Please model this.
Amino acid sequence: MREDKLIRSKNVTGDLGEYIVVDYYTKTKGLPKLQFAPPSTKNIDAISVNGERYSIKCITTNTTGAFYGIEKNTDISDIKPLFEYVVIIKLNEKYQPEFILELDWEAFSNINIGIQELALTTY
Model:
């Protein structure tokens, strides 16, 4: 899996989610074509061909991981945008996509969660 760049780090689930999102966006008409950001790029995982920055979060439960650069109890509207879009992909128990959700920075900051994690409720 490392040879075909599916897994790029020790975060196997995160890498899988990023790969699925980049592949899905690149193959889906009407969505921006994405490419992986260079390894260790702060706050983002992919860049569109138009230069838009994407943070991709992969989850298997209803809570995302940390949003680095956003300290706990911070009013998100007070900080400089770290990315243009956050894409959250949820994988089921067989590691197949359950949903993909995209929020732009404004929608993300309007959630105004003030914490590092975003809790998602699915029905």
Notes: The chain has a mean pLDDT of 80. The first strand starts at residue 34 and ends at 36.
